[in-house]
Amino acid sequence: MTDVPFHGAARSSVSRSVLIHTALVVASILMLYPLLWMLSGSIRPSEEIFGSSSLIPSTVDLGAYWRGWFGLPVSFGTFFWNSLVIAVLSTIGNVMACSLTAFAFARLEFRGRNFWFAIMLGTLMLPYHVTLIPQYILFLNLDWVNSFLPLVVPKFFAVDAFFIFLMVQFFRGIPRELDEAAMMDGCSPWRIYWKIMLPLSMPVLATAAIFSFLWTWEDFFGPLIYLNDINTYTVQIGLRSFVDSTGSSDWSALFAMSVLSLIPIFLVFLFFQRLLIEGIATTGMKR
Question: Which CATH class is domain 74-282?
Fold first, then answer.
């Protein structure tokens, strides 16, 4: 008789687990459906893409990958290289400048520190479009338009307040006794930042680097504004070139290149997901 409640509770637990896993599987399928549909569209003829709701194509045609890579006046590999250069340089600039700025706000004492930190946080609520025209005029006068400079140089001046705030919260969780001990040994603030803070902050630095790379790789509006020559196009602008307003768009080639454009993002998450999760989990926590 005493085993009946136990077995009843076990069956209830199993049923709950089955329901939860079933719901998770259904949710995963719904989230993956657009990706699967895009992958299916990249290996079927263009005329079948919008004429069938099935994910399994009637005929497999890999020619879209060839047309997408070589179908434009410039090879799509050029777009990949341009996006990679911009994303890598922007990531380096963001990590260097934002970490140095965050160190100043978190560790150094200077007049008006709280005021300037509040101003920096206030820029998070400032829409990008508000500063677009002044920035464009500035870069136009500097003769930087139609080059990578407007997309890369600002990143070296700590313009992303979100990353600064993220790093400030992490730096505040590092014991100040380490700074005091280093200062007693004669370390300057720069040496403390370079020798102590950065090695202890790899999770948050990796988080900032990953998000910076992904946001830059996926950016469409910035390159659309500043890049006019097809030789300087990024992947996102290159994908737009397959869509023709006259109605003669090569959708299968567009989907094929869209699938390839996801590979760098997938690889970044695959190799750095541990640091990403650790950085998000430990940001702002006392250690």
Answer: mainly alpha
pTM for the predicted model, two decimal places? 0.84
Separation between Cα atoms, residue 221 and residue 226, nearest integer Å: 9
Domain map of the chain by residue range?
Answer: 3-65, 74-282
How far apart, in whole angstroms, are the C-alpha atoms of residue 58 and residue 41?
A: 11
What is the C-alpha separation between 225 and 76, in angstroms, rounded?
A: 20
Rounded Cα distance between 35 and 53, Å, is 14
How do the pLDDT tens digits run along the chain, 287 residues long? 455 555 666 677 777 888 888 898 888 888 888 888 888 888 887 777 776 667 777 777 788 899 889 888 899 999 999 999 999 999 999 999 999 999 999 998 889 899 999 999 998 888 888 889 999 999 999 999 999 999 999 999 988 999 999 999 889 888 888 888 888 888 888 999 998 899 988 888 988 999 999 999 999 999 999 999 999 999 999 998 887 655 567 788 888 999 999 999 888 888 877 776 666 665 544 44
